[in-house]
Amino acid sequence: MSETIDLAPRKGMTAAEISAAVAKILELATLEEKVAMMSGHGFFAQMRESRGLWGANPYRAGGGCERLGVPPLYFTDGPRGVARGSSTCFPCTMARGATFDPALERRVGEVMGIEARAQGCTLSGAVCVNLLRHPAWGRAQETYGEDPYHLGEMGAALATGIQTHNVVATAKHFALNSIENARFKIDVRIDPRSLREVYLPHFRRILEAGCGSVMSAYNKMNGEHCGQNRELLTGILREEWGFEGFVHSDWVLGVYQPYGAAAGLDVENPEPVHFGAKLVAAVNSGAIEPSVIDTACRRILTTTYRFACAEDPLESYPPSLVACEAHRAVAEEVALKSAVLLKNEGVLPLKKSAVRKLAVAGRLATLENTGDNGSSRVRPPYVMTSLAGLKEFLDEGVAVFAGDESDALDAASAAARADAAVVVVGLTAAEEGEWIPGDMGGAPESGQGRRGAVGGDRDNLGLAPEQIKLIRAVAGATRRTVVVVVGGSAIMMNEWIDEVGAVLQTFYSGMEGGRALARLLFGEVSPSGRLPFTVPKAESDLPFFDKNADTIEYGPYHGYTLLEKAGTEPAFAFGYGLSYSSFGYRALKVRKAGDRLQVQVSVTNRGAVAADEVAQVYVGFPGKVVDRPKKLLRGFERLTLKPAETRTVRLEVPLDTLCWYDATTRSWKLESGAHTVYAGGSSRDRDLVRAAISL
Ligand code: BGC
Known about the structure:
Elements: H1 15-28, H2 31-37, E1 40-41, H3 43-49, E2 59-65, E3 70-76, H4 93-99, H5 102-117, E4 123-128, H6 148-164, E5 168-174, E6 187-190, H7 192-199, H8 201-208, E7 213-216, E8 220-221, E9 224-225, H9 230-240, E10 246-248, H10 260-263, H11 276-284, H12 290-309, H13 325-338, E11 340-344, E12 358-361, H14 386-393, E13 399-403, H15 408-417, E14 420-426, H16 465-477, E15 481-486, E16 502-505, H17 513-521, E17 551-554, H18 559-566, E18 583-593, E19 596-605, E20 611-620, E21 632-641, E22 646-654, E23 660-662, E24 667-669, E25 674-680, E26 688-694
Parallel strand pairs: 3-4, 4-5, 5-7, 6-8, 6-17, 7-10, 12-13, 12-14, 14-15, 15-16
Antiparallel strand pairs: 1-2, 2-3, 8-9, 11-16, 18-19, 19-22, 20-21, 20-25, 23-24, 25-26
Helix pairs in contact: 1-12, 2-11, 2-12, 4-13, 5-6, 5-13, 6-8, 13-17, 14-17, 15-16
Bound molecules: beta-D-glucopyranose.
C-alpha cells in the first residue's frame, strides 16, 4: 500500500500508453485514493492563509495520487485574464464578444494559457458562456453575449487557445446560470426544445472543439441542482453529445449529495464535502456502484494525461512571460476592436490639431475599473485609465480633468472652455458582478468576500441619476460631447442620448483600455465593435427577470429573437455598431453544397478611411412545422477594408445548424421549404441584403 509506483505522465506518451497507464492506476489505486481524486483539496486552508485573497494559489481541483505519481489539476480563474499574481487584464468577455473576432479570441486564450502555466496552473475557468438572457444579470460581463451561435464560436476559440499550452479549459457554468443573486437556490424551469436550441448549443460547440472539462452550475434545472442533474450531466452531455472529458462542480456547495457522482459529476470542488468520506461510505454500503468511481477517475485521468503528455509549444513557461509586453499588446488590440460606437453626429473622430483643450469628466475617467470583484478579478501590474490614456496620447496640458459627478457645474464650465468634452460614465463592481455571500471568506482589504451589498444583479438598467446630470450639464456646454459608457452589457440611454453628440460603449476595457480609448477617439483606429446583445427601447421589452426568484421559466425567446417575434424595434440592434467609414453589401449568393449552405457576399468600404467591418449572416426559417425565430445568426467574419476596397466574404452554414429539436422523437429535424439568408452589418432589417433558398 505505501509502496511508491511511478505512473507519472511523460511528454510524448501515445494514446495507447496513456490508456494503459490509466488502466494500471485504476487497478492499483484504493477506493479511498480514487475518491480523493474526485474532489479538490486544501482550498479553505489556503484561503485562510492568504487572508481571503481569491487566486492567491493554484487550487487543487481534482486528480492526483502521490503514491502512483499522478499529478493533480491546479485551477485558476478566470474570464478576463488569469486570476493569479499580476497577470494581463484583458477587456472583459462581453467586450471580447463585441470584437466578433474568434481568431483574436484564440490569441487571448493562448496568452491566458501561457500565463496560467507560468503560474503553476493546469485547469482554467476562463471559458464562461452562459447566455445573456437579461442585461440585469450581474455576471453579464463574464460572457460573450445573447446569441448561442456567437457564444459557441467565441468560446471555442478561447478554449482552443488556452489548451494550446496544455492547460485544460473548462466550459462554465453548465447550465442556465444567468441570474446571480439567486444562483444557489433558483430553479430554472425549461422545456427540452428551448434547452437544446437556445441555452446549450454553445456548450456543445465548445466541447466538440475539444474543450476538456465542464463546470456545473450552482442553480437547479427542472427541480434538480445542475451539479447532480442526471439529465444534464449524463443524458445530454455524455449520451447525446458523447463528451469524454470530466465535469467538476462550481466552487461552493455546488453538489448536495454523494449521488451527484452517479448523476455524472466527476469532481467536487473545492473540497470533499459531499464526496470524500460520504462517497466512500456510499460505495461500501452498495448505494453507489464502484463502476461510477472508476468511470469518473478514468475521465479525470485520461484528460489530465492527454494534456500533460502533449508537447508544449514553448520550451519553458517562466514567470517573466506574465503580463509581458507582447501580452499587453494583445490586451490593447482587443480594447481597440471591442469598443462599440453607438452614436456619432459628426463629433468623432476628434482631430488632434483642432483640440487644444479636452475636458474629461466623470468619476470613472480616473478609476481603475476593469470589472467586478468576484472570482474573475485580475490584478494587473497597472491599469491605464481613460484620463491617463488621453493624457499620454495628447500633448502635455491638452487633456484636463474637468470634474466628476459631485461638481457637474464646474465640469460644464470647463467643457465650455474646451474644444471637446469626454464624459466617462457607467458601472463598477459596486453595481454589478459576482455575488459572494459575506460568510464565504475574503479579507476586506483583498476586495473579496464580506462585501455585503455590492456586486450581484443590477437594479437599474440605466445610469445613476448623478451621471445623467453630469452628461446633461456637459452636453449643455458643448455640442462636441462624447459619452464613454462602461459596463458589462446593455445600458439604457433613452433619457439622455438625444442630448449628446457621440456615444462609445467600451465595456470594461482592461489594463490598456485608456490607451485604446485615446486612439479610437482621435481616429487613429476606427471603432469596429458590434453589440453582442440587443439594447431595448423599454425594459418591458425584455423577458421577465427577478434576482430573488426561487423559480423562473426560461423559454425559446429573448434578445433579438424576442423583439423580432414581437415586432418591436430595439434602441440598438444585435450586431450593431458604427464606424468612421461605412460599408455596402451586394451580390449575396447562396447555394446548397452537400450538407451545407455556401454563402457569399461582397462587402465594400464606401468611406474615406480604412476600417474593420463585421459581416453577419442570418438565416430565417419557413416556420411552418413549428414556431421558430424570425432569423438566427449563423455566420460572421471580421474583415479589414481599405477605402473603396471590396472583398467577397465566403461562409459555410452546415445544414444541421438549421435544425429544430423535436422533443417527441428526441431528434433534430431540418424543415423543408424556403429559407431566407440575410447578410449585412447588423441584425436590423435595413442593414441586410437577402436571398432565398429552398431546402
Ligand atoms: C464561480 C466560478 C468560479 C469559481 C472558482 C465560483 O463562485 O461561480 O465561476 O470559477 O467560483 O473561483
